[in-house]
Amino acid sequence: MVDLASGVGININLNGVAHIWNDGIPRLTNKTSHFVGHAFYPSPLRFKNSIDGTAFSLSTSFAFAIVPKYLKLGGHGLAFMISLMKELKGELPRTSPTMFSLWNLTQFDQDFEFDINDNHVKININDLKSNASVTVAYYTDTSSKEDLNLKGGKMIRV
């Protein structure tokens, strides 16, 4: 995979139906129902200084689009996960990673079952029960809060 901004190669592990388009963009699903893919960074991230034990913070940015077959019905969602594991073995498309003992999941979700609505972002830490969940929105340059629709099929940068 290639970082389109810098042209530098990026090493990721893909599984399921995930693949890289010719332009270097990863695609984690295809038009087949109930099949998904995953992309994992293969090297461990260090979150603690080994000398004095201080914790590091993590900041990341990525863009994604959820393009459902039927706009009004939506689709699955997208999750950004930090875990001890490099892959999800035996995961079904609409389930969460329950087999992990230590994980952090930020999920952009269109499924309203057990959630606040069908257009939300949530944080889960080591549990299927969300630690925090809010309707998807963003703030403009003038600090005005604007709603954002995950079902719209448009590119979203987080």
Question: Which key features would you list for this structure?
Answer:
single chain, 158 residues, mainly beta, Jelly Rolls, four-stranded antiparallel sheet, two-stranded antiparallel sheet, 12 strands, 29% strand
User: How many individual helices?
Assistant: 0
Report the radius of gyration as a whole number of Å: 17 Å
Main beta sheet strand tally, sense and closure: 4 strands, antiparallel
Physical arrangement of strands within the biggest beta sheet: 6-7-8-9
Mean pLDDT: 81
What name does CATH use for the topology of the largest domain? Jelly Rolls
- Head-to-tail CA distance between termini: 20 Å
What's the order of the H and E elements? EEEEEEEEEEEE
The level 1 CATH classification of the largest domain is Mainly Beta
Number of domains: 2
As residue ranges, the low-confidence spans are none
Computed structural class: mainly beta
Which term fits the overall shape?
Answer: globular
| Strand percentage | 25-35%
Beta-strand segment tally: 12
Provide the helix percentage: under 10%
CATH architecture of the largest domain: Sandwich
Organism: Nelumbo nucifera (Sacred lotus)
Keywords: Lectin
Family: Belongs to the leguminous lectin family.
InterPro entries: ConA-like_dom_sf, Legume_lectin_dom, Leguminous_Lectin
